[in-house]
Design brief:
With 225 residues, the protein is α/β, with parallel strands linked by helices. The protein has two domains: 4-16 and 88-224, 3-Layer(aba) Sandwich (Rossmann fold); 19-83. Helices cover 44% and strands 13% of the residues. The chain has helices at 19-32, 48-58, 65-83, 94-102, 118-127, 146-161, 177-185, 200-204, 220-224; strands spanning 4-7, 14-15, 89-90, 109-113, 136-138, 170-174, 189-193, 210-212. Helix 3 (65-83) runs parallel beside helix 5 (118-127) and helix 6 (146-161) packs across helix 7.
Length: 225
């Protein structure tokens, strides 16, 4: 029985239609005068901190704590700004699935497992009214490596549910191959969604326990019982 469900954010819970990428680009331009090189970056499934470090190094800058703090202070301000005009929203099936989880005989707790920094995650989810359901999680502030973020999320789940929480009692839900890999890294069950750009065929071949087009195609009881 699943006791902890960990959700990715972008492409899994919500779509921001580029607000995050715009905020990244503008923050680099405003703070450091860097306006090219974005074509060399891949955002999907990556952690915010790893993307920032990669971009700095493209420009031959070794990012220290001061540079990272400068970037993210401007980024979260701009993220909030760009979200105000975003046409994105909560992905179909998400609210229904959260309600299904709550109505299970033994409802699991819900958390986040994301490459967003924590404040960025909160800004995005609060904007779309879907921050409150999540009581735990781990973020890019915790670690730059997504597999390590998964381990931290698992340990935080244990802090709430008890040290007897087993890896197979955790479900990781995401929309990229990175999400499947980090779920497997902690021994969790994995549910892959083709809602963020990855092809359903690739997700099905990734070793995910379930791969579906969206959460409307599968009931929470099917994967959590």
């Amino acid at each position: 029985m699943v006791k902890l469900v960990l959700f990715d954010i972008d492409g899994t819970l919500i779509r921001t239609h580029g607000a995050g990428v715009k905020a990244f680009m503008r923050a680099f331009a405003c703070e450091f005068g860097l306006e090219d090189g974005f074509d060399q970056l891949t955002f999907a499934g990556r952690t915010d901190t790893s993307v920032v470090r990669q971009f700095f190094r493209i420009h031959h800058i070794e990012p220290g704590p001061e540079e990272m703090e400068r970037f993210f202070s401007r980024y979260v301000f701009l993220l909030d700004y760009y979200l105000q005009s975003s046409t994105g929203g909560v992905i179909p099936g998400v609210w229904e699935w959260l309600h299904q989880l709550q109505n299970l005989p033994h409802p699991p707790i819900t958390g986040l497992l994301t490459g967003n920094i924590r404040l960025g995650a909160e800004i995005k989810l609060r904007h779309f009214g879907i921050w409150e359901p999540f009581v735990t999680g781990a973020f890019a502030d915790d670690h730059e490596d997504r597999n390590e973020i998964a381990r931290i999320a698992f340990q935080r789940g244990r802090h709430i549910l008890g040290n007897n929480l087993k890896p197979q009692e955790v479900l990781v839900i995401g929309d990229t191959l990175h999400d499947v890999r980090c779920g497997k890294a902690i021994g969790a069950k994995t549910l892959a969604l083709a809602t963020g750009g990855a092809k359903i065929e690739a997700l099905a071949q990734s070793g995910a326990d379930w791969a579906v087009n969206n959460l409307l195609e599968i009931h929470a009881a099917t994967v959590c019982s």
